[in-house]
Design brief:
Blueprint lengths: L2 H7 L38 H4 L3 H45 L6 H18 L3 H24 L12
Helix pairs in contact: 3-5, 4-5
């Protein structure tokens, strides 16, 4: 990188070209082989101390920080609600096992597809995202129901922590 490119890369106090050490990137965030980065993916490391030198950038950093806190709060709620949801589906699995019912209930699944589609549209969410969520929770619930059935109706086989 030439000196002029380097100075523009660090304009505003942030080094826009700097990449993290691949050894410091969690495996779940490493989409490529160590040290390899996709040309279509870029990253900006937000340096609040350096951004403070520019009031506009400092304001943007403050807004990003506040929004990320809101995102973290929503993530906490989502994970807590998923835990609660799986407690209920585990109880359903126990009842299905006692009655000898199969883990799958396709009539219920069809109902959920339509219901979640309507909810997504009303909430302004892409229905495909709601379908991905539905597919995840339904496939997990079926797996858990099968494990309960295989254990003779014992929900203790699940990874329930509460």
């Amino acid at each position: 990188m030439s000196e002029s490119e380097n100075s523009s890369a660090t304009e505003g106090g942030a080094d826009w070209s700097e990449r993290p050490n691949p050894a410091d990137v969690p495996a779940s965030r490493e989409p490529h082989a160590p040290g390899a980065y996709s040309g279509s993916e870029s990253e900006t490391v937000i340096d609040a101390a350096a951004a403070a030198a520019d009031p506009q950038t400092a304001l943007i950093v403050a807004k990003i920080t506040a929004l990320r806190q809101s995102i973290d709060n929503v993530d906490t709620a989502i994970v807590s609600l998923l835990a609660e949801r799986f407690k209920y589906t585990s109880q359903v699995g126990v009842l299905k096992a006692r009655a000898g019912f199969a883990p799958a209930d396709y009539k219920r699944e069809d109902y959920q597809i339509e219901r979640l589609h309507r909810i997504a549209v009303a909430a302004g969410l892409d229905p495909d995202i709601a379908e991905m969520y539905r597919e995840f929770v339904v496939s997990e619930a079926k797996k858990r129901h099968q494990r309960i059935a295989d254990a003779g109706g014992d929900p203790g086989v699940l990874d329930v922590f509460a």
